[in-house]
Specification:
single chain; 76% helix
Length: 213
């Protein structure tokens, strides 16, 4: 498990560097603390995502029970699209982690089978996205950054799954076989989808208005 953890930390670092040196969509870093509007947007979006992800979680449990880590990996990326959307709307440090805690808490209240352990996914996935944004200085918000954040959060979420469910990468080849599937799932269902939704919202003026001082 130690090697698997180190592998994931190194992977997130590499993904962050890729985003930093390839994403040309650079914007000025937002200054100041959270506004009331920022907090409301994050809370509402996280609560909605929590409801949706509770349903997706049932599919994940089914796939994981039937096919093991490889089955869960195919669906893992479907959980973080709203995380990406949130950080692209409110471009400030800590938003992804805050979002993850609220979203996961909503799932706990709605009866996620993992109970309080659900918070582990919210924390791990949120921290992975924060790490990517830290690498780009919270100033690059293009498709590449979204994809890298989606991949990182998907894989870090599986790291928590391994800890929570006791999967031992030393003996379970499926955990390693799931890595590329996780990356593709996170890139498409979280990164690309989250970016598309953020781009659509940008045209409505919501993102612009949420950044007014």
């Amino acid at each position: 498990m130690t090697f698997y953890t180190v592998f994931n930390v190194v992977l997130v670092a590499l993904l962050g560097l890729i985003a930093r040196f390839t994403d040309k969509n650079q914007v000025d870093k937002e200054k100041g603390g959270y506004t009331t509007q920022n907090l409301v947007i994050v809370a509402v979006l996280a609560a909605i995502a929590g409801v949706i992800n509770t349903g997706v979680g049932n599919l994940w449990y089914l796939a994981n029970t039937s096919l093991g880590p490889l089955g869960g990996a195919m669906i893992q990326g479907m959980f973080m699209w709203a995380y990406i959307l949130a950080v692209f709307i409110v471009r400030k440090p800590g938003i992804a982690l805050m979002f993850g805690l609220i979203e996961a808490s909503t799932e706990v209240l709605l009866g996620n089978a993992a109970g309080i352990g659900t918070l582990g996914w919210g924390i791990s996935q949120g921290l992975a996205i924060e790490a990517i944004l830290l690498c780009v200085g919270y100033s690059r918000f293009g498709l590449i950054t979204a994809i890298m954040a989606g991949i990182a959060s998907s894989q870090f979420g599986t790291l928590w799954s391994s800890v929570f469910f006791g999967w031992d990468p030393s003996y379970s080849k499926d955990v390693w076989m799931a890595v590329p599937v996780n990356m593709i799932s996170g890139a498409v269902f979280s990164g690309v989808l989250g970016y598309i939704l953020a781009s659509k919202l940008a045209k409505t003026g919501l993102i612009r208005s949420s950044r007014k001082k």
